[in-house]
Amino acid sequence: MAEDFVIEMLNITKEFPGIKANDDITLQLRRGEIHALLGENGAGKSTLMSVLFGLYQPEKGVIKKDGKEVRIKDPNDANRLGIGMVHQHFKLVECFTVLDNIILGVESTKMGFLQKDAARKKVMALSEKYGLRVDPDALVEDISVGMQQRVEILKMLYRDNDILIFDEPTAVLTPQEIDELMEIMRGFKAEGKSILFITHKLNEIMAVADRCTVLRKGRYMGTVDIADTTKEELSRMMVGRNVQFVVDKKPCEPGDNILEVENLVVPSRIHKNNAVKGVSFNVRAGEIVCVAGIEGNGQSELVFGVTGLEKATCGRIRLCGQDITNARIRDRSKAGMSHIPEDRHKHGLVLDYTLGQNLVLQRYWQPQFQNHGFIRSGEVQKYADRLIQEYDIRSGQGAATIARSMSGGNQQKAIIAREIDKDPQLLVAVQPTRGLDVGAIEFIHKQLVAERDAGRAVLLVSLELDEVMNLSDRILVMYEGEIVGEFDPRTTTVEELGLYMAGGKKQKEGQA
Amino acid sequence: MNQKRKPLSQNATLIGVLASLLSILIGLVLGFVLLVVLNPGAALEGMTQMLTKGVSNLSSFSQVLYQAAPLMMCGLSVGFAYKTGLFNIGAPGQYTMGVFFALLFAIQFQMPWFVCLLAAMVGGAAWGVFPGLFKALFNVNEVITSIMFNWIGMYLVNLLIANMPVMLASAWGASNSDRTAALSSANPGAIIPKCGLDKLFGDSPWINISILITVLLAIVVWVVLQKTTFGYELKACGLNRDASQYAGINAKRNVVLSMVIAGGLAGAGGGIYYLAGTVQYVIEKAILGMGFDGIAVALLANSHPIGAIFSSLFVSYLQVGGSAMQPNYSPETTDIVIAVIIYLAAFALLMRGVITKALSRRKEKEASGK
Ligand SMILES: Nc1ncnc2c1ncn2[C@@H]1O[C@H](COP(=O)(O)OP(=O)(O)OP(=O)(O)O)[C@@H](O)[C@H]1O
Ligand SMILES: [Mg+2]
User: Fold this and answer.
1) Are B96 and B106 in contact (CB under 8 A)?
2) Which of A406, A415, A434, A441 to mutate to test the pocket of ligand 1 (most atoms within 8 A of CB)?
């Protein structure tokens, strides 16, 4: 035996209506390696991993574990083979506690009664050992995304899995949490566990992976050793052309105030205190203002307040001179506000509607799309086809595809297309490139800059400092519900921002 | 686009129909087993009766249509609400209110039938408002309020009718005062017209144009849900309330409207049944079952308005057949058998998966056999 493969997926083909998601793909996972899986949005990464985890049955191909052919009919089979998976969109029971979620499906019982004490001990021991901080008694709906992910990881460990699949684990994490996760993954590797790791962030692949397999449009492009490759080469392999990582921007020429926020106070949904404590700022036409900060410092609530998803308890918001503090969401939208929301499944999409229906979610009531209350489906179709074309939204059946069946990145592209095409005065974008491949990020960044150059105002909330430095014309740093500093990206550094984000420093109140 | 013919295992419509038929068949077999257990001698005859009665003669068939009409309305009511994310278990109460309003306008106010029918809709709709408001304003689960309003509705109607002497049969030449007057004596103009349909059905007393009205309404409901911006909003609220809020849809208003429309549909069902002139409202102590049967109708139809046309006919067919088994089996028994059949028919969804799997397995075998 030349090489020691724990898992071999040979010539896997998986079809969905209208699309071959996996077309003759081969992937071999060495024992004790971190193997990255790279590919554009919709390339078939999640599908391939779901095949390995027993969620889908491939039409063709075989899977081997330790050289022996196995059939994985469902996740229970996968579990017995030691395969665990953290999904791109978590699969936790919201109203259960962390502990209940971890033991769900493998509960130990005595005469029909749950035996939780032993389980709790094991979970706490694992949590300690790998530095996966969780509160076992908290309800999942109350905890942060980061902790939810740690719960998913503990689920795998609790089941003694030694082949771990991570599907875009870092898309929802803060930079600090990402570093922690990388450390944890290295720890697993040192113990001899084998890891399959999907990510769109090439830096992460360069940092932890041993090898990387690249897919493009459902097909296998090759496997490379990370030691002898570069970011540029990887991205070329993946999209078939050179990708620009930095956007070209003309100097900013700000115009009139579009958004004016004065002394805004927004309550928190989680705790009793205010999440946003009297924030004032403005966004002018033709500039991109970025709100930076560590997750949970009130950025989300600030956006809720501005967009109307949460009522502001105090303060004043003006859009193009019009007071919208208490305006309904529809009226804000009519006044020229677009919103790319943070949580695409919760707010951004009606998952069981088709892609076409989702693309008109903000405009179905406009005369273009309805006639005396009847939807003009022909127009909707035409409009959807245009956006699908322009934004390269990939799916099996075009506008008729159910949004739920689309790949995560393409769902995100659909939302972005819808919100930008609304031609807003103000575009509020929260983590707009979350889950997008490098090619798509390049495209979206260009779109955002184009909006700005067309004289639109853009309010961008991002946790990624690269994106912040790259795109913004002005940076506001938020810490504990307040804006603690305003910076010009040309004269500041990531380190300085970091200092303010961590609460180590605060500028004097200097702005109007 | 490649226009390859879809393999059998991917033809959703065909599999859907196949699955429904298969589940019904299994239901019938189980129902038969039950009959054998309860009264072996009469089982075969009973089952035959049940399955053939509905088409055995024109009179029975017209009875199937006659009962299908209110069932369809209740099914539409439950199905419509369900499509918008609400479980309208209040259909029985709304139905009872519809009955009351129809009879009130027919007997007390001496109105023509279409006014009475409209009144029935308004009555049902009014009874849908409360659960809708409670849900929208205080986030009280509609199931709980609906159930309470079923009972409130029933006792309120009983109370009102008992205290309205003109409404009672005794005021119109009959002796009993425990029920409302027969429309034939109180106000023949309030009886839904037959428009010659009775000639087609051998002078059957059951038939009138109500089945046509309900089919029309089913189509209207389908159009509203499928083709209008209003339906788009309602369904969006049902599927994802957060996203509909994000899109600026007034979710609270839609919850109330949805319950009002569902109530109106159930109310129309009550009106249609009692305006046929063949039954009188008896002051009862039990909630009228028609609304509950609507849940089964909606379930079988997978909440689809057009599906409700067929599922209500199916349920009605079984009920008419069931009543023909009566001397040998008690009404309760036939109810159980009908329930078993309906219950299994609802397994169609499960069956769909089984069939798809079986078909694709066959395809696999064929492929490997080559
Ligand atoms: N359950 C499904 N039904 C129909 N089509 C599906 C289903 N799951 C995935 N697809 C399609 O298969 C293709 C591959 O999807 P997949 O989720 O594997 O992409 P991905 O590589 O994980 O992309 P992303 O980076 O955006 O997450 C997509 O075009 C998607 O529309
Ligand atoms: Mg994916």
Assistant:
1) no
2) A406
Whether residue B16 has pLDDT greater than 80? no
- When scoring B2, B226, B229, B230 by the number of chain A Cβ atoms within 10 A, the one with the most, hence best to mutate, is B229
- ipTM above threshold 0.95: no
- What is this structure's pTM? 0.88
Contacts 24+ apart (CB under 8 A), B111-114: B111/B187, B111/B190, B112/B189, B112/B190, B113/B189, B113/B190, B113/B191, B113/B192, B113/B193, B113/B275
DSSP type of residue B296: H
CA B88 to chain A, closest CA, distance in angstroms equals 21
**Please, which pLDDT band fits residue B367 given cuts at 50, 70 and 90?**
low
d(CA B72, CA B217): 10
Measure A436 CA to ligand 2 centroid, in angstroms. 10
Cβ of residue A439 lying under 6 Å from some atom of ligand 1: no
Of the candidates A119, A97, A93, A96, the residue with the CA atom closest to the CA atom of residue A106: A119
3-class DSSP assignment, residue A425:
coil
Task: Name the DSSP letter for residue A97.
Answer: B
Q: What confidence tens digit (pLDDT) does each residue in B197-213 have?
A: 878 887 888 889 999 99
Distance A358 CA to ligand 1 centre (A): 17
**Residue A409, ligand 1, Cβ within 6 A:** yes
pLDDT at A509: 52
Nearest to A43 by CA among A234, A226, A214: A214
| Ligand 1 proximity of A407 Cβ (cutoff 6 Å) | yes
Chain B hits for A330, CB-CB cut-off 8 Å, are 248-250
Separation of CA A129 from chain center: 28
Partner residue opposite B232 with nearest CB, options A330, A341, A375: A375
**Radius of gyration in angstroms for the set of CA atoms belonging to chain A, rounded to a whole number:** 24
Contact between B104 and B119 under an 8 Å Cβ cutoff? The reply is yes
- Domains in chain A, CATH or no CATH each: 2-239 (3.40.50.300), 257-336+424-501 (3.40.50.300)
Which residues of A are less than 8 Å from B230 in CB distance? 373
Cβ neighbors of B370 (< 8 A, separation 6 or more) are: none
Q: What is the pLDDT, as a whole number, of residue B9?
A: 57
Domains and CATH numbers, chain B: 77-321 (1.10.3470)
Q: What does the pLDDT look like over A283-298, one tens digit per residue?
A: 999 999 999 988 888 9
Looking at residues B243-258, what average pLDDT do you find? 94
CB contact under 8 A, B239 and A333: no
DSSP one-letter code for A369: T
